[in-house]
Backbone:
């Protein structure tokens, strides 16, 4: 209403008021003065004032409390169904008992990474303990089961995952990249490096030599058509390659990670929008462009993960940084007025989606904190984005408005009508990542929030806050 009144000539406002009531009372005059001065309180859908460190931590703590209850570590004997109390005495056919989320899925790799970031940002040991307990159980059970034949392919995929079939023998990038990155990050942070290394090596073997590639080395899938690139696969490969390079010093890992970023971008990035299309097929011309939110989230997370560890003198660093900045500019340009982003980023008729919004909030806050982005330009966007994401974490710690698992499509209807659910695992890791980075932001480069002439800006301190590094 404020904007509409402001663009009308004053005489038009006066005419309307005069018609309704020729002699305004003093209270009406005060209301008119408020309108003219722009001092009517806006009905923001989420708080406009920047969240404090304590407010951000409270959101993360709710998520942690929910996940600790929803994903307990429980082992069972598959032959009898009986619980196993001691990891040191496992029966031959042990498996994880079902919980609300799968502890070895790619979504949970992101969750472990988010927990490690939260531990570093807050100093709260519970986040690190969450990761340690689960990765210890995964590594111990996988080592116990490794000599045995893989579970029958006749079993449903969920049961095979509970028996760690894809930890023992990865078959896709989804099986490998996200969990590998989280395990390497944990190992570099001092969590069970020797115990995790056999799992890491198996995952990395698939990424480096098992996955299909185009003739130029670009990682590809053969679904839904041969030689198809899924933007999601930047996250399912690049962070693991980057982390492995940091762990081992193997420059070939960095080289491959840079190659994936640049070669995916050559095919999927659309410079006119500074956004990525979701998919690309070798034999398709023209290529439909559907700018799915979460896929763009995977891409910008991959860019952040690579820049975090890529040596400053690597010949590809400047190109990767330029790609990150271009992508962030495109993301910022399509933010909705609520602070969130749409399922299809350039289509306001598609719903507002939480997991992508959290990824974008993280990626921009991280860029500000690392000095890759100008805080004056991006800090207000980050602040309202986090507040909007935080509104999607309910009192129980569940993340609402998260799109369920989504394949590759070539029409807007498919994306626009994907369901959302608090059981969609894709939302939890991004919220943890975003919240952790917001704490660093609000206690560092984003500490000084200023309301100047109505809008929000940040007076950036000369020196950022230094926090314990997450590898």
Residues:
């Amino acid at each position: 209403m404020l904007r509409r009144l402001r663009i009308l000539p004053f005489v038009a406002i006066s005419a309307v008021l005069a018609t309704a009531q020729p002699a305004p009372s003093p209270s009406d005059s005060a209301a008119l003065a408020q309108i003219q001065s722009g001092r009517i309180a806006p009905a923001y859908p989420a708080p406009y004032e920047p969240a404090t460190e304590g407010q951000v931590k409270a959101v993360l703590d709710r998520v942690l409390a929910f996940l600790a209850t929803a994903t307990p570590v429980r082992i069972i004997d598959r032959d009898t169904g009986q619980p196993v109390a001691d990891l040191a005495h496992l029966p031959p056919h042990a498996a994880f008992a079902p919980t609300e989320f799968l502890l070895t899925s790619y979504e949970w790799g992101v969750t472990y990474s988010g927990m490690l970031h939260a531990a570093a940002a807050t100093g709260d040991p519970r986040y690190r303990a969450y990761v340690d307990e689960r990765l210890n159980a995964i590594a111990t059970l996988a080592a116990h089961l490794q000599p045995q034949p893989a579970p029958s392919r006749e079993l449903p995929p969920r049961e095979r995952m509970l028996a760690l079939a894809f930890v023992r023998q990865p078959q896709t990038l989804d099986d490998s990249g996200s969990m590998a990155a989280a395990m390497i990050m944990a190992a570099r942070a001092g969590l069970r490096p020797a115990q995790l290394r056999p799992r890491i090596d198996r995952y990395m073997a698939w990424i480096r030599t098992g996955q299909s590639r185009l003739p130029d080395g670009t990682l590809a899938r053969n679904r839904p058509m041969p030689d198809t690139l899924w933007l999601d696969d930047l996250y399912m490969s690049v962070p693991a390659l980057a982390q492995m390079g940091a762990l081992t010093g193997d420059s070939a890992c960095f080289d491959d990670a840079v190659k994936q970023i640049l070669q995916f971008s050559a095919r999927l990035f659309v410079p006119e929008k500074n956004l990525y299309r979701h998919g690309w097929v070798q034999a398709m011309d023209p290529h439909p462009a559907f700018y799915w939110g979460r896929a763009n989230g995977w891409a910008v997370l991959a860019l952040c993960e690579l820049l975090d560890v890529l040596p400053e003198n690597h010949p590809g660093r400047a190109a990767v940084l330029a790609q990150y900045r271009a992508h962030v500019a495109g993301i910022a340009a399509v933010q909705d007025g609520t602070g969130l982003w749409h399922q299809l980023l350039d289509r306001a008729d598609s719903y507002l989606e939480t997991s992508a919004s959290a990824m974008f909030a993280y990626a921009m806050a991280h860029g500000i904190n690392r000095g890759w982005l100008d805080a004056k330009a991006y800090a207000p966007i980050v602040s309202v984005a986090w507040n909007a994401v935080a509104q999607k974490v309910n009192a129980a710690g569940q993340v609402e408005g998260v799109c369920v698992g989504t394949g590759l499509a070539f029409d807007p209807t498919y994306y626009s009508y994907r369901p959302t659910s608090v059981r969609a695992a894709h939302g939890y890791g991004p919220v943890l990542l975003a919240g952790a980075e917001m704490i660093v932001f609000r206690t560092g480069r984003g500490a000084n929030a200023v309301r100047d002439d109505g809008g929000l800006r940040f007076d950036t301190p000369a020196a950022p806050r230094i926090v314990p590094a997450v590898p």
Notes: The two ends are 48 Å apart (CA to CA). The longest helix spans residues 125-145. Residues 1-21 have pLDDT under 50 and may be disordered. Residues 1-43 form one domain.
